[in-house]
C-alpha cells in the first residue's frame, strides 16, 4: 500500500499579496492615477490625500486634489522631489506620502522611478485610466494594434520616425515633441499620408479632440498636456485581423533579404539578395529610425528596411521607377512606411529630414558628392554598393573625409543552378563592392523620461 503524504502547499515565492482596499499596508508611498483624485474621486482617495504628510505631484494635479500648500510639493526636476521623500521617511519612517500622477502611473510614468529609488514593496499603486486608452475610446476604435511612444526625456526624432513608419501610433507628447512638431516632421516627408488626432485634457472639463492634417497641426498652438494619435490614411483605424501581441510585432514572417522575384524590377536593376542581406546588416534598420534609399531603382532596400520597422525614403530619378517602388511597397504591405521622392540626387535630398542610415545604390558621375552629402547628414551609417572598381577610391575618400570609420568588402555569390541530367552547377553572380562608414558613437545622457 503506498504511503499517504500530506499534499505540499502551493509555492508562493515572488507573489506579493495586495491588502484589501481601506486596510493598512506596509507600503508608505501611495501613487494615485489621475482618475483616482480628479473627477469621480473616491472617499478613500480623498482620505489618503488628506492624511498624507506630503503630497507630491504636478501643479495641476495638486490643485485638482486641493492639497494645502504646507503639505504640497510641486514637481519640477524629479531628483529634488525624490530626495525630499527620502528625507521625510528618514525622519519619520511611518510618514505617509501620496504621489499624484496622470492616468496609469505604471505606463511610462513615475512608478519606475519610485520603485528604483524606494523599492517596489514601498509602493501602493492605484492606477487611473491611461490617456492613451481614453483617446482611442473617444474615437471608438481598439488600440491593441497601436504603437505607443513616449517623447518625455527622449530624442523626439524617435517618435517622429515611428509616426512615419507605423500605421497607428500614440505619442505621449513633451516640449519639443508636441502636436506642432509632430505635424511638421510628418509634413516634411513628401507623399507621406497621415492624419493626426490631438486629444487634450482627457477626462477634464476642457477635454477636446481635434482631427487634422500634419500641416494643419504644425501651424497651430496647442495646450501643454496632450496626446497625439497618428493614423495612416492608407489603413483603416480598425484592423481586419485580431492580434496576439499589442503594438509593434517585430519583423514580418518570411525573413529578410527577399529573393529578386519578390520585387518588380527593370533590366535586373535590383540589388541582389546576397548583397542586400549584407547591406541590411550594416544599415541596421529598426523601429524609430529613418533610412534613405538613394538611387532606389526597384526600392527593394527601402521596402526591406520598412518591413524591419524603420521609416524609409526612396529617392528615384526615373518616373517609371517611382511607380515601381510604390507598387513594390504596396505588395509587401509597407506603402504607409515608404515615402517615394521623384528627383535626382543629391539635389532631391536637400529638404528631407536627416536620416539615421543611408543606402547608396549608385550615383554615376556625382557619386563622390552624393556620398559626401549622405555622410554629412547620416546620424549613424552610410552603405554604398558599387559594381565598378574605379569608383571605390572616391567613395571611400568621401566617407573618410566626413569622419566616418570606413570598411569594405567585395561580395560574389555562386548560386546552385540545374543542368540537364539532374545535375547541378554553380552559377556566378557579378561581384559587387560594398563600402560602409560608421559614425563614432557619442556619449548619451541618461534621462528619467517620466510622464507626470
Please name the defining characteristics of this protein.
452 residues, elongated, alpha/beta, 7-stranded mixed sheet, 3 domains, single chain, Cobalt-precorrin-4 Transmethylase, domain 1, Methyltransferase, Cobalt-precorrin-4 Transmethylase, Domain 2, Rossmann fold, 14 helices
Quick rundown:
With 452 residues, this protein is an alpha/beta fold. Helices cover 28% and strands 22% of the residues. It has helices at 34-37, 43-51, 59-65, 78-91, 111-118, 131-139, 156-165, 179-187, 214-218, 273-283, 300-307, 319-331, 367-377, 392-401; strands at residues 29-32, 54-57, 72-74, 97-100, 123-126, 147-150, 168-172, 194-200, 208-212, 226-232, 290-294, 311-316, 338-342, 357-360, 381-386, 405-411, 414-419, 423-428, 432-438.
